[in-house]
Amino acid sequence: MDKSVRICFGILGVLLAPLLSGCIGTDALANPGTNRGVPGGLTLACLDGSEYTSMVVEVDYHPGYKPETSSTDLLLERLDSVCDKPQGIEIQFTETSFSNEEIWTASDVRDVGWDEKSHDPRDKSVLYWQVIFPEGVYEDSSVLGVAVDASTVAMFKDSIDDAENIFRRPSAEKIENSVLVHEFGHLLGLVNIVYTSPADHEDSEHPGHSNNEDSVMYWAIESTSISNFFSNELPTEFDLDDKQDLIGLADGSIECTDQLWRP
Fold first, then answer.
1. Domain for residue 256, yes or no?
2. 150 within some domain
3. Cβ atoms within 10 A of the Cβ of 41, count?
4. Model confidence over 1-34: pLDDT tens digits?
5. What pLDDT is recorded for position 212?
6. Does some domain include residue 4?
7. For residue 21, what is the domain's CATH number?
8. Which domain holds residue 141?
9. Whose CA is closest to 136, among 65, 32, 203?
10. Neighbouring residues of 67: CB distance < 8 A, sequence distance ≥ 6
11. H/E element, 133
12. Does 5 reside within a domain?
């Protein structure tokens, strides 16, 4: 399978049609030369604290679609654990009425996201990443979240709510928690998007995703078929291999490609 095709499937190996559009915008991966970059294109800017000493995650949400506090708190904790930002990381919320209210493509997410960005992703000493929470669904309605370039992610709460099964195990909140960290994991370049890991932890049938079910980057963490997983506990942590990859990228022992900035 071509590495430009990124696929997110449901928990417990639910069989979906192959080559579905997944949680990484394939058009961004096919055009790494654009100034908006590919997912993972600002990995080193996040992992290195020499120039970008602080970080802001901009959360733009449609009225009624504000993310769960537990989700953004968890995201902040996970980013703080791996990114070198001596002046800290904060989250800024903005209620925004998006013009698109039904079906979103990766290009829609990217264009609308950039229209709503309050700052360039690299503004003086601050690194800005963004997640939008719009009304409506992705063009592949099984997808719950998508990373479309080096700084932009979208989360589809309508689909997340629909993914909650009648037993609420996992609950919509738990699903949102995991998927949000998962998508920002792609902004960090995980797994093997802008590098090649020395560890064999990429799922061979699902490029860009982990083969470890205990990693938040596990290949099956993302899809409405997650409702088939009858547990309220989903992975929310980067596993040891994920963390070792990030350490190697930060110290230069792992080569990192397609970067918009290098130390």
1. no
2. yes
3. 27
4. 333 333 233 332 332 323 233 688 766 665 655 6
5. 94
6. no
7. 3.40.390.10
8. 11-251
9. 65
10. 59, 61, 131, 133, 155, 157, 176, 180
11. strand 126-133
12. no
